Amino acid sequence: MKLNLPNLDQFEVVVFGRQIGECILIHSKSKWIIIDSALERLTKRPFPLAYFESIGASPSDIQLIIATHWHDDHIKGISDLLGNAENAQFLTTRCIFDKPFYRLALHAKKYSGPSGSGLDEFREVAKILEQRNQPFLQGAEGIVKRFPSLDLELTCLSPSNFACQRASAEIANLIPIEGCRFNRVKSVSPNDMSVATWISWNGRNICLGADLENISKAGEGWNAVCSFLKSQAPNEKAEILKVPHHGSITGWNDTFWKDHFSSDFAVVTAYTRQSEPLPKREDVERMASYSKRLIATTDPKPSKLRGFENSTLRQLKDITNWVHDLGQKEGLVRFRISSNETEWQVDKWQNCVEVSKDFGNIKDWY
């Protein structure tokens, strides 16, 4: 695949994924929207900056940066990205706009160990926005952002109002006792704070599922999304779906896949920071049964380095960064289409693979 600048009339969707970390780029009319951030393997720079450099694009053309939620695998380098994108607005989940979250951020800064926490990035983002006298934009169900410069419309599908209320109470419980030291903020679970988005361009729709999970209650998670879409866009379907929560069953909702996804392209990113990496074999089979084309940015097979003790890995990384590079696979898939075209151009790079219908090309994953 040749990495080159899209034409002015081309709509482009790039999904980049590491085995821990993901990022999505949207292009239209020489302007860009970035969803989440991950570090590129070799340069350790935010992937969008490395991608822009390779195709000759300018970060000044970024109009919006979205942090779907505050987990590390979605926000690595996002403050650096914002710092280079002087014209960008910044949107994140409405769930952080309350006193409990800011108290949590304060405690994380005051008592975190050398490894820091995912909240470090948000403090840096807040500092940059304050210097620019620019507010955070809030993402929640039903919030619509129209971008005439990109000729597209972005609708936030989540979090629901109920999720925001519940998240505030749960975040408050994460704040440590005064004087306690902690290295990393524990995740609120299940994750219904994440900002899933629906993007419409020239009569085409894509859905970016973030890490939003499925919850049995009607007013939460993907059930709330389906209710919203049924009332606001009952006949619309997404041609491209960035699968939520790395293809896990926890992010699966039958109604969404049947009623709001055209089945054309499903893209899944891996997650290997747990004993059973995602997606699992049964996840791949389930997604494939609902998709004409299922594409994984990289496989979920963990590196053999996972067998090392953490202390050993730290000692090796003190000697060379190459150990980290070897242990993290990455890849990207790029979709392009012009307003006068009917078929998407699909290109894959590095470890990205399209899952065959007989699953023959993924037999060594599990």
Structure description:
The chain is of the alpha/beta class. The chain has a single domain, classed as Ribonuclease Z/Hydroxyacylglutathione hydrolase-like (Metallo-beta-lactamase, Chain A, 4-Layer Sandwich). It has helices spanning 47-55, 72-75, 78-84, 99-111, 119-131, 161-174, 221-232, 254-259, 281-289, 310-319, 322-327, and strands spanning 10-18, 22-28, 31-35, 62-67, 89-93, 137-139, 144-147, 152-156, 197-201, 204-208, 238-242, 261-268, 293-296, 330-338, 345-350, 353-354. Strands 6-5-4-3-2-1-14-15 form an eight-stranded mixed sheet. An eight-stranded mixed sheet has the order 7-8-9-10-11-12-13-16. Mean pLDDT is 86; it is low at 111-116.
User: Could you say which structural class the secondary elements and strand pairing correspond to?
Assistant: alpha/beta
State the distance separating the first and last CA atoms.
Answer: 27 Å
Mean pLDDT: 86
Task: Order the strands across the largest sheet as they lie in space.
Answer: 6-5-4-3-2-1-14-15
Radius of gyration over all CA atoms, rounded? 20 Å
